[in-house]
């Protein structure tokens, strides 16, 4: 097998040029430039001073939802019900009677709330399903409700568990081709991504090895199992960390449980009520989507089978209850999102050996709605620096399609707490570029002999460049086990 030699690379934060030799998919030598000798045939690539980093991971994606989003009506730029209805009306007219599926509305700050009648007026008899940007609610017209066998109130909105059930009916992995998945994976590789943690609710143990065999082989994938799939995974005898495909790209990951809702849908489970919600409302503090005792039973089953846990918790009550459950069971794992935390819960992550799996761009998407619905509490929202200083390991992810599958967007948001020229939001919760990169690369930035050659070359050194460049960082090459999955040298 031909060795690969990368010449004139720079380690992050260091000025001296290096050469890196890769043999059989593993880094075999790192030397000062010009000193490396190899007795084997070498394929040379001049990095011309670019910065070498370990490959990046997105630690929270919904891969099928992100892939199929390309086929949906884009509502992400809308700011009102009127703007959504205008786009949907146009989409319905152009649909030739086919179902219209839109994605990306955020209704938390709309002046006029969603209305079933207004959506019906905009779409007529065409089935219309509009998915919120956080995936936790749907706006359905009457035709969609009849077709999908659901019923809403006059808002046309379906939330949480009922919404997830409709999403499963709406689209499935069977609706996508191998080429669709390959394009998504290639786009990720072009951004320096070498691996993802996939939290899609599907039979991932079977589907991902099939995708790799079919040619979706430019990423490593850690898969998950939702509660309704857990028994099947246990019956297969699959444990966290087990390899599931012949290429060694797919590994079993954790049990995924969603304990509460989301901020934009006003269903995140909080200690304090949402402003303006009547005292008699059954969910004035949000939704306990899975009862805590049921969560404990699921986690106990997973623990006994050697399966880790990744638990979705956004509101501060949800986070408290999830931390309590991990503590009671003596189990480690990740808390997914960890968006709003009580101050005394922050050090518990490190004390319990838990990782905070966070999505910094959500803070940029949600800053205005948080200022309204979590007023007086935002000093402990998306508290990345507080978690890091308390010793909690961080992992960065996108929650794609909730935000784009692009680690540089997440790194930029974590470092600057700003977007589109706005003043930083709670800048006291920024983290350093090094910390953000380490939370994306797996814990370190140095490339050393013996490392699997999952590597990237970037145009600017992220440790020394202007932070304004991070969001649009140009990736010149990506390698997976020594094979280029993206090449623009």
UniProtKB/TrEMBL annotation:
Residues 46-485 form the Amidohydrolase domain. It holds the Pfam family Amidohydro_3. Coiled coil: none annotated. It comes from the Bacteria. GO terms for molecular function: hydrolase activity, acting on carbon-nitrogen (but not peptide) bonds. This is Amidohydrolase 3 domain-containing protein.
């Amino acid at each position: 097998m031909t060795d690969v030699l990368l010449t004139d690379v720079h380690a992050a934060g260091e000025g001296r040029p290096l050469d890196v030799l890769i043999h059989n998919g593993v880094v075999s030598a790192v030397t000062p430039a010009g000193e490396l000798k190899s007795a084997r045939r070498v394929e040379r690539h001049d990095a011309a001073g670019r910065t070498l980093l370990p490959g990046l991971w997105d630690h929270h994606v919904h891969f099928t939802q992100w892939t199929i989003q390309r086929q949906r009506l884009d509502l992400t730029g809308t700011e009102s019900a009127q703007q959504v209805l205008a786009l949907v009306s146009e989409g319905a007219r152009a649909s030739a009677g086919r179902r219209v599926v839109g994605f990306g509305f955020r209704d938390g700050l709309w002046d006029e709330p969603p209305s079933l009648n207004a959506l019906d007026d905009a779409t007529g008899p065409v089935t219309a399903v509009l998915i919120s940007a956080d995936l936790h609610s749907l706006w359905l017209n009457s035709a969609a409700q009849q077709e999908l066998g659901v019923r809403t109130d006059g808002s046309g909105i379906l939330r949480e568990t009922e919404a997830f059930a409709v999403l499963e009916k709406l689209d499935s992995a069977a609706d996508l081709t191998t080429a669709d998945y390959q394009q998504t994976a290639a786009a990720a590789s072009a951004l320096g991504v070498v691996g993802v943690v996939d939290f899609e609710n599907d039979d991932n143990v079977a589907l991902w090895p099939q995708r790799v065999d079919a040619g979706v082989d430019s990423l490593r994938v850690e898969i998950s199992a939702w509660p309704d799939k857990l028994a099947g995974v246990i019956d297969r005898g699959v444990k966290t960390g087990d390899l599931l495909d012949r290429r060694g790209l797919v590994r079993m990951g954790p049990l995924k449980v969603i304990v509460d809702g989301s901020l934009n849908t006003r269903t995140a489970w909080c200690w304090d009520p949402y402003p303006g919600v009547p005292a008699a409302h059954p969910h004035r503090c949000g939704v306990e989507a899975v009862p805590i005792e049921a969560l404990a039973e699921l986690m106990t089953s997973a623990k006994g089978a050697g399966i880790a846990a990744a638990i979705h918790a956004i509101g501060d009550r949800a986070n408290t209850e999830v931390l309590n459950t991990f503590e009671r069971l003596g189990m480690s794992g990740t808390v997914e999102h960890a968006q709003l935390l009580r101050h005394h819960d922050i050090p518990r992550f490190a004390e319990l050996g838990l990782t905070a799996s966070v999505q910094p761009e959500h803070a940029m998407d949600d800053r205005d709605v948080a200022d309204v619905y979590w007023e007086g509490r935002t000093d402990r929202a998306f508290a990345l620096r507080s978690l890091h200083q308390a010793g909690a390991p961080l992992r960065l992810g996108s929650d794609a399609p909730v935000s784009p599958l692009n680690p540089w967007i997440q790194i930029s948001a974590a470092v600057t707490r700003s977007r589109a020229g706005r003043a930083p939001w709670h800048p006291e919760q920024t983290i350093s570029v090094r910390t953000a990169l380490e939370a994306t690369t797996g814990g370190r930035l140095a490339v050393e002999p013996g490392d699997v050659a999952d590597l990237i070359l970037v145009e600017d050194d992220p440790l020394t460049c202007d932070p304004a460049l991070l969001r649009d960082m140009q990736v010149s090459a990506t390698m997976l086990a020594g094979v280029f999955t993206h090449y623009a040298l």
